[in-house]
Amino acid sequence: xxxxxxxxxxxxxxxxxxxxxxxxxxxxxxxxxxxxxxxxxxxxxxxxxxxxxxxxxxxxxxxxxxxxxxxxxxxxxxxxxxxxxxxxxxxxxxxxxxxxxxxxxxxxxxxxxxxxxxxxxxxxxxxxxxxxxxxxxxxxxxxxxxxxxxxxxxxxxxxxxxxxxxxxxxxxxxxxxxxxxxxxxxxxxxxxxxxxxxxxxxxxxxxxxxxxxxxxxxxxxxxxxxxxxxxxxxxxxxxxxxxxxxxxxxxxxxxxxxxxxxxxxxxxxxxxxxxxxxxxxxxxxxxxxxxxxxxxxxxxxxxxxxxxxxxxxxxxxxxxxxxxxxxxxxxxxxxxxxxxxxxxxxxxxxxxxxxxxxxxxxxxxxxxxxxxxxxxxxxxxxxxxxxxxxxxxxxxxxxxxxxxxxxxxxxxxxxxxxxxxxxxxxxxxxxxxxxxxxxxxxxxxxxxxxxxxxxxxxxxxxxxxxxxxxx
Length: 471
Ligand code: TXE
Known about the structure:
471 residues; alpha/beta; Aldehyde Dehydrogenase, Chain A, domain 2; 2 domains; seven-stranded mixed sheet; 15 helices; 23 strands; 23% strand; binds ligand TXE
């Protein structure tokens, strides 16, 4: 049985839709709800509403700050309902969904504390020269299905604080929590400031091509990111792309596994591996290879996998049917090429998109699951003899999101981590973002930054204010 859930929010109100599309619960593979499919005319309306709301919204940063703080409170008050929707449409265990809702509120609070810098370059009796950061207008925010609420807030929190208005389009796989967010915030944000629409993939393309938005802020795949860049480029609109990664973790020979095996495991398996900043491949000294594989395989076998609504479940299903198919294909390819599954290696019986947490050994670079982003609960563990060679292999990719080095010697690890070609390097941690630090993608992992002050400035245009005195 399917039920119709939340409507789109345009100009602070419901917009009736004649077309809908089904939303699956990945734990059952069944459609459990219908979401509105935004028509081209309704997209125009949403962008018009955002344009109309811009002049007033841009005028008062104090009001914007208060509104974002109120939005954070409203989200926290409604956390249980949002988290339940998130688990139903995305699959993550309910406690993790609650964590994502908390992060969503935290991103809005974080944005509310930021200030738009004003840099006075010169101020004397002849002239005053100042750099300002002004809002751009309407921002299109396009989000993926792995963390729909948190990634949306990361975008619209900064965009709104900077004085822009937003049209948010979530992934067609996980539209419901974002639609619910739009409804919840209707009386917290002025009408038109945050519009939430949903639809199949062509809606994303129409939004990116539309002449109204002056920035597209996109998180998703490299392939789609390139399409967004081309569409935005044709109109000279600005764009921010947060794309995938193939993060390498390098373990050094002195690591205490008793202390760090859990960190390595969850660095890879967080959100069922469906995180841009998860460990996607692990390089281990050959002398410690068996020990590491065994420690990780033990953990993979003992993790409780199941429907995220059930208590005690630690890993849910893959979030989408295509992602489930992709993970199966990549694992089958590795096994056919001679890799061994030290744990898992197969889908789990029954309904839903469940894949056994998998540790792959006896494989090297050149195998697809090592070279490509698997985005699933599978970690290839690759032995190395020379740490310089491990570093070279970690860097031999078009991705450049994050990396990590694990060692008892923080200084030695830090020196190596500095040479990883990526936006963030961790030592003895992975997938551990800091609120104040931006997300940065090198190479094909992204263009621009998100989060913190460095993520706020891209939502502005720099302006020079030059006042000449005394002539
Ligand atoms: O992403 P898409 P998909 C990676 C991961 C995964 C792969 C595919 O490897 O296997 O991407 O996932 C909208 N113009 N990541 O196919 O297509 C779409 O509706 C504008 C990494 O779901 O990139 C959705 O809202 N928008 C990533 C959003 O783009 C378009 C997180 C992302 O969809 C569009 C998720 C178009 N032409 C997947 N076509 C990360 N960076 O963490 C689609 N969209």
